[in-house]
Amino acid sequence: MGRGLGAILSAESKATVNSATDEGADKFVGNIVEVSLEDIYPNPTQPRTYFDEKALNELAQSIENLGVIQPITLRKDGEKFEIISGERRYRATKIAGLTTIPAYIRLVNDQELLEMALVENIQREDLDAIEIALTYHRLLEEIGLTQENLSQRIGKDRSTITNSIRLLRLNPDIQNAIRSGEISAGHGRAIISLESEEDQQVLFELIIKEKLNVRQAEQAAAALKNPKSPAAKKAKVELSNNYKKAQKTIADILDVKVEIKSSGNGKKGKIVLDFKNEEELEYILSHIK
């Protein structure tokens, strides 16, 4: 025969097995079979759109040396097979020069295919917060899941899902900043807590300019919402790392206690210098002149 059992099942089943009730489906579905790469095509609705070329080449080298350790998952589509999960392994296997790949075969409809691809996508650890939010949104809108159903299927709290999806209300520039890692999802949640798009933009620019951490961003958001609130007053006291560095630099130069007070909106502030007597004041002035 010259072919492995997987190759035999793949060849014989391409035309005859299209549903779970077809003869031979029990031997074909649920088993690992070797499928020709020529018979496989990617899922056009695959949530993942970016594949790092360097990482792909590294995986291809591993596959060339050790083979494909984890089978991919495919959907039977006539005589072809559509990828449900594992497109990265499929691409790397082609780069490695192999002609077949081990796979699990599933018989699912279009909706089930999309749901499986989306849920599998969520489980990956390298997704950014906006990709996750978009995936949640598609599962709710295109698949028709409720947030309760989605929560049960992926093991996440409903509040986590809700807070994630809210990030999609941010303007594209802020979303792109989250995707690139310039700011975090926590920063994004602080920004989206502001109702005014103008205030959101002010806070976004402040976070970038002053390199605010998430806690500082939350306090700045409170200050923008209610300048007289206790949280706003605390936000003015909480300095960015740049301000703290400047405060220490001035104190070292003048050898006096220095306090920088920020308005919380990044537009203005003041520097307070402590002196004990006229001599110390003269000393400070001599260093400023």
Short description:
Helices cover 55% and strands 12% of the residues. The protein is an alpha/beta fold. Strand 3 and strand 4 form a beta hairpin.
Provide a descriptive summary of the structure in words.
The chain has 289 residues and is an alpha/beta fold. The chain folds into three domains: 11-108, Conserved hypothetical protein from pyrococcus furiosus pfu- 392566-001, ParB domain; 112-225, Arc Repressor Mutant, subunit A, CATH 1.10.10.2830; 241-287, no CATH class. It contains 15 helices and seven strands. Strands 1-5-3-4-2 form a five-stranded mixed β-sheet. A two-stranded antiparallel ribbon has the order 6-7. α5 (110-122) runs antiparallel to α6, α11 (197-210) runs antiparallel to α12 and α12 (214-225) crosses α13. The longest helix is centred in the first third of the chain and has 14 residues, at 53-66. The radius of gyration is 29 Å and the shape is elongated. Mean pLDDT is 79; it is low at 1-10. Pfam families: HTH_ParB, ParB_C, ParB_N. Belongs to the ParB family.
Fraction of helical residues: 40-55%
Rg: 29 Å
The domain count comes to: 3
CATH architecture level-2 label of the largest domain: Orthogonal Bundle
What layout of secondary structure does this protein have?
Layout: H1 5-16, H2 25-28, E1 32-36, E2 40-41, H3 53-66, E3 72-77, E4 80-85, H4 87-95, E5 100-106, H5 110-122, H6 129-141, H7 147-154, H8 158-166, H9 172-180, H10 185-192, H11 197-210, H12 214-225, H13 230-237, H14 241-254, E6 258-262, E7 269-273, H15 278-288
Parallel strand pairs: 2-4, 3-5
Antiparallel strand pairs: 1-5, 3-4, 6-7
Domain ParB-like N-terminal: 33-122
Pfam families: HTH_ParB, ParB_C, ParB_N
GO molecular function: DNA binding
